[in-house]
Amino acid sequence: ESDYQLLEKLGNCISQKVVRISSEQRKSLHVAAVFVCNFVNHLYQIGNEICEENNVPFEVLHPLIQETAHKISELSPKEAQTGPALRNDTKTIEKHLDFIENPEYKNLYQLLTQSIQHVKKL
Asked: What are phi and psi of 102, to 5 degrees?
């Protein structure tokens, strides 16, 4: 029995889906994981901070967060994208930018807005 077969058996004991990938694919998977987990969690932190600063309980956003996460299991991320950037709702975007005081958060909002619009070719 090869090392791979042994690892595959072990993997099947702890997961319903075992995928064989190359070292290069593993690098791309790790980068993708940073985007979908680490960066998203940081955005949750920013959202939490904005809520706290304005006396809004972050828990109010939990249903929206759960709905968004659920959508990704049924739609591609591109199909699941919503929001003012996608709609090219410049009035809402400007209101949000006026509201955001932290220059780093303002810059991040602008970068993410531009990225969404670039993907959707707006």
From this structure: -70, 120
At 75, give phi and psi (nearest 5°): -125, 160
CA distance 9 to 117: 44
pTM over 0.70, yes/no: yes
Torsion of CA 53, 55, 57, 63, to 10 degrees: -80
The residue with greater pLDDT, 80 or 2, is 80
Angle, CA of 118, 84 and 60, to the nearest 5° = 125
Q: By C-alpha distance, which of 94, 69, 96, 68 is closest to 82? A: 68
DSSP character at residue 105: H
Q: What is the structure's pLDDT at 122?
A: 61
pLDDT, tens digit, for every residue of 3-58? Answer: 888 888 888 889 888 888 899 999 999 999 999 999 999 999 999 999 999 999 99
CA distance 121 to 81: 13
